[in-house]
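Before the break, one more example. Copy the sequence into your notebook; we will annotate it together after we see the structure.
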Amino acid sequence: MGLTGKLEVEVAINSPVDKFYNIFRRQSHHLPNICADKVHKIDVHEGDWETPGSVKNWGYTLEKGEAMSLKETVESVDDENKIITFKVLEGEITKHFKIFKSHLQVKAKDKGSLVKWTIEYEKVNEDVPNPDAYLEFAVNVTKDIESHHLKA
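Here is what the structure looks like once it is written out:
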């Protein structure tokens, strides 16, 4: 097993492409209201909600129920293809991973969207498990956003 890796998952949802994409592109401050059991807070540390390079603080909980935090930046944005790359800068996750990036891509599919999450990582050592819990977190947040949009 190597120190670097990539995990991917695709989730088909019934939310419109632009509506889902904009949650992460411009409206991530709504996530604590949409999925409060997973995302407790998001605030801007540096910059704003939209500009690549801006830094945000997240408070979140994975499946084991332990509250954690991280600081991330939007590394790149491709609005035409609906792709955002996030890079973790600080937090508990950096105790286990030297590099941790997540890529979000949203494509139109039938009456909804196809959401693809990709996680690229480099572990600090061989004893660190793959970040499957973070991929599951992304899937669960995606489904919570879909449910929120269907109720609206």
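The chain has a mean pLDDT of 95. Residues 132-151 form the longest helix (20 residues). Try to locate both features in your own notes.
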